[in-house]
């Protein structure tokens, strides 16, 4: 066994390098500090790159190195591209980091009760407690046999877990399919569910890449989970990973899965998950179970965000990489696949293709508006004639039977005209492109005497207020009370509401169809009378949406049915064509994998720094909107109170503002920097001092007519 005083990562790295074991070299070098850049020949020993570390003097390992017997190993062959080789290195790093942490936790720091504990106990007995206590290393062949036997037991355990959950979904599906459908809509949902159940159980549907294009209201969440668990059971896969684009809808997905499968089988892994908001001394037994599982994703069903999933795959830090080896041999559902950010689209597609090709992953692109990704996947998979099978194929006639509203063109409107249109409806949804428009329209409606039942939803409100207002909105809709909602696109992110009529400012076709999914959602009204009005304004002509708007205009001219698969495919094809290849990999992530960065080969650390799924140069302002928020903000006065749990709980009370808005709030003396409360940086976050600048009904006031002028416009 190694002495703790020996720099074992540096020594082990050099041994592995001499044996030409590229993956082991990187994994050993980075299993504490994270994967370094490989670097280049001119790096000196002062460089943090792998080359630089190789040039440093050898650590003294004379008192233990003769005890080591190296097994006979062969270098792994290249997978054919630098991207593949770098992903394989990350996977090796992940496996080593997880094993190292579990080993230290169980054998050194005292046993911790987690799902791995019985297997670690078995490993202890197989290796021999007396031998280990005497620091005697078993021979390599014995280690190999013990590990193979234990891996088999672990795989059997995981298969049993998946089988039990699949049977729950089977029984649920059969109960729906055997009963007479109460409505024609339920009959159509059952048809999709039947396809998911049948194809999931079919051994001919092998692990690979699939689409599930279920129209809004088609029950895609339930059906996709049924397919995933059935497919995992059929092909002896370890887990299901459900990737959700927005934190605003992840809670409802988690609650649905927990009600079906039980909380012990579902891991919600995102910053605002309940167990993540607690301090260590507040954690229950179930919280601890989830906290441990979040480190390495050892749960049968994971619900996480697209940011967490993809940024982990491109990470270099050991803590973020630790879980990714457990993505292998999994079914991964990408919910609302059309929301993958275009500036990072090609790296995301390449990562999915890599998982499918080399790690026995089944990936399902699940959405009502399927993006035209076939060509990008064909390029990533190096298969010119790629066909992506659809799990629940629908004819255009069958798709049209899901139609519950009609999209109409209302032409150009100014803001006051839109306010008048909203005033004239008892229940209506109006979705606009900017937060400023939403605040203005809802403000005019409220001033005209419609304050009761009029709601504004934007990210200028903290999450606490948005959640509270959404509960009120759902209650008023259910009771038939007046409910006029003016919102930005955040309400399109899977928020489950049902309005008789809707307005949508012109944008991309996918967003317009998402708004349409909130109009007559349950099909209780006549489709032709449930109108979705598309309008344009001067205020909503924002630069980042110009290409989406142009693509929509071109598609609208030649398609009478904008919800048809033909129109959707044409829209995405045009949009991707306008953007061009370079804009689909804005930070040149793929080029960095294949060619390096500025002469630095395999730049793991630099790629991790570059790859941000959603790049928003915004800064949080904490709003002391209630007693809890005020108490949390008060704790910021004492740096000794700073914990991960504190800042995560504060996240519910944060409003993210742009730099120009932040400057104006600073100049007006409306906010104070955390630096004034003891933190090192004055750019990390701020506290709102003047609560007159915040209204729970409309959010933070940041426009030029609400703050002193300083020449900066937003």
UniProtKB/TrEMBL annotation:
The keyword ATP-binding appears for this protein: yes
Keywords: Antiviral defense, ATP-binding, Helicase, Hydrolase, Nucleotide-binding
Signal sequence, renumbered to the chain: none
Annotated InterPro entries: Cas3-like_dom (IPR054712), CRISPR-assoc_Cas3_HD (IPR006483), DEAD/DEAH_box_helicase_dom (IPR011545), Helicase_ATP-bd (IPR014001), Helicase_Cas3_CRISPR-ass_core (IPR006474), P-loop_NTPase (IPR027417)
Lineage: superkingdom: Bacteria
Pfam families: Cas3-like_C_2, DEAD
SMART domains in alphabetical order: DEXDc
Domain HD Cas3-type: residue ranges: 1-102
Helicase ATP-binding domain boundaries: 201-388
NCBIfam families in the record: cas3_core
Name by which UniProt lists this protein: CRISPR-associated helicase Cas3
Organism for this UniProt entry: Bifidobacterium polysaccharolyticum
